[in-house]
Amino acid sequence: MLATQSTDIGIIVYAPALQSHDDRPVAVVHAMERALPGLHLGWVISQEGQRIPLPDRDAFVAREILDGGFPLLRNGDDNFRVTVTGWELLASSAPRGAAQLEVHAKLPLNADGIAAAADVLEAVAEASHAFWGHATPASAQWDIARQTKGAAHDLEPPPRGLPTLKPPWNIPSPEIPHRLGWLNYWSAAAARAIGFPDPARDAGLLSRSRRTATGGWLVRLTDTPLDLDIPSHLDALMRAYERFPVIGGRLPRAEAAGS
Predict the structure, then answer these.
(1) What number does CATH give the domain 8-130?
(2) Are the C-beta atoms of residues 166 and 250 closer than 8 Å to each other?
(3) Has this prediction a pTM greater than 0.90?
(4) What are the CA-CA distances from residue 168 to residues 93, 101, 164, 239 (Å)?
């Protein structure tokens, strides 16, 4: 997972693996820049930590698609740092043994970053043709990541009473989200897989949701960024896991549809 700080909003989406001459990395960068006016992701970071401008950013990104991913790009504003990169989730670690593209982006956890988070998540997800994804403050991401238990010796229960989630390779379909976050992107296929929306049960979530251009959904669990030290936020996350037991591979899709 991309290194992050407690003052960041981490964005991650899972999409089909990159193919030869795939134009999605460049499309992701353009989509982020459209979603956040004034953003220009025109720099890379050297091994010494220095910012290096890219004279022809798009050509660089298209040329540097290696090992199933693309290099980390950032903007030029140290007071509002935005980054994006992508790498391959190996077939051995992915649902159904099919490699995927993970796109990771980062926004500051400040007023401007919070205001842009939903649009940037949607932009990254739609441009990468993602199955699902989420945007979550780093502090909550840490606890949510600890829900996944993949090793037999890892017997420590998840924090805060959260449910145990299966690792990606034990989830039966790429459309099933591995976990929840603050802002959740579910493609049309992912929404069908988890049974969303059900008007009788999802009125609260629907009031904080919107459709995307491709028929997917952007679903906000809490009005303000998810903070698991706030009891109502923890309760919202717990209720969402209860509503969608298929998430994290806890219940087969067929059983979940009837639950």
Answers:
(1) 3.30.310
(2) yes
(3) yes
(4) 6, 13, 13, 22
